[in-house]
Amino acid sequence: YERKDGRPTKQRLLVVANRLPVSAVRRGEDSWSLEISAGGLVSALLGVKEFEAKWIGWAGVNVPDEIGQRALTKALAEKRCIPVFLDEEIVHQYYNGYCNNILWPLFHYLGLPQEDRLATTRSFQSQFDAYKKANQMFADVVNQHYEEGDVVWCHDYHLMFLPKCLKEYNSTMKVGWFLHTPFPSSEIHRTLPSRSELLRSVLAADLVGFHTYDYARHFVSACTRILGLEGTPEGVEDQGKLTRVAAFPIGIDSDRFIRALELPKVQDHIRELKERFAGRKVMLGVDRLDMIKGIPQKILAFEKFLEENPSWHDKVVLLQIAVPTRTDVPEYQKLTSQVHEIVGRINGRFGTLTAVPIHHLDRSLDFHALCALYAVTDVALVTSLRDGMNLVSYEFVACQDSKKGVLILSEFAGAAQSLGAGAILVNPWNITEVASSIGYALNMPADEREKRHRHNFMHVTTHTAQDWAETFVSELNDTIVEAQLRMRQ
Ligand code: G6P
């Protein structure tokens, strides 16, 4: 690839996602402090070797004044990030409203919200209008930074309208779109009032990717059944134009976790945790506090296990890390109180003066504390009601090479398709089944644990986030070359 001035350079990758991978705190009129979140996705996307990547997204803060916007833009540029500024009203309607109150629950099979199902078509419509407006604002920023030859990779349900906006601006732009959540059955998707418009906008992309083959299949059938288009083994065809649709299961940066376990700081944490929970088996849940994660169901299953197994009462503890998220959305506020109530009841019922069966934390842990926790865990409980992939299950496996603990995994998480042979798969709605799986996991003989762990560890360390990103982008480039060849024929 050549720049405009003729200098050879790496191909540029513009990653567009709702959120930038930073937390930005304003320190003064024109000063910001930034912390880059060093998660697997960030290193995967900013670390693809053949590309020079930039990240475009919302910084998660309201910056109404120009001085603040200019200063933040400058500070972010050093981190290869470009901000999209969204005002409070747009955030309310687009992010809290359309994204997190409508699309998120729908894509996770929780249906449309009751209020909208009744008479609030106006509010539904105004949220959808804000969604389109926000997507257009993302597109405007992409357009300002786009150079010929760049690859533009749009992410997630927040930006389903973006491929269309980008192609309207420049039909030769290379556009990929990837969904990090499930794509539901077409029978669910068809309840959405704006179902067709969203599908058509996504189809404007050259390549559309999902975590699993099932999600890709659901998307193709939504396009055939709702839009009446033709589904082919390659994707979806509309008047001779093919949009390629395929599965690209994401992974983690497993080395980062494995290396962290060697750090003295993490070793210290591990020692402390072992002392603290000596004589008890440790069970662990790490989730955003979201209804799709099935936290109440998981805790009820643990209660049932305790009820049926009195001999385990003082020999097992459940540590539940519940990271607050989307706290302005009423559904999330309700869930928080519900979980607190259940935890309180169970601890009241089974606790003693010196110990409780559940430690519930409403906050995130830093990376090193989290690695230590994964490493000392005997049984991890990932019991999402629906989950696009679920990387907590991967992170746990990466940290378990010495302990070889057991993973109990929901069959409704995308990860069940890759870690299914090593994990104990459960239906999270079936509390009796989850309770008995807890018993099975706690009593599992070492050779079975070893065998199951081997399978999962092999998978997690060979299917990394980096591979995922490279595969998607090279497939996108190939798709475009193939389309050009087809045009010439
Ligand atoms: C899911 C979504 C992401 C989102 C994350 C955190 O993993 O797929 O797009 O960023 O949840 O949610 P939040 O609303 O806090 O960004």
From TrEMBL:
Enzyme Commission number(s) of this protein: 2.4.1.15
UniProt keyword terms in alphabetical order: Glycosyltransferase, Transferase
GO (cellular component) term, any one: cytosol
Gene Ontology MF terms: alpha,alpha-trehalose-phosphate synthase (UDP-forming) activity; trehalose-phosphatase activity
Keyword Glycosyltransferase: yes
Similarity-based family: In the C-terminal section; belongs to the trehalose phosphatase family.
Protein name according to UniProt: alpha,alpha-trehalose-phosphate synthase (UDP-forming)
Organism per entry: Papaver atlanticum
Phylogenetic lineage: Eukaryota, Viridiplantae, Streptophyta, Embryophyta, Tracheophyta
Parent-record interval covered: 84 to 572 of 937
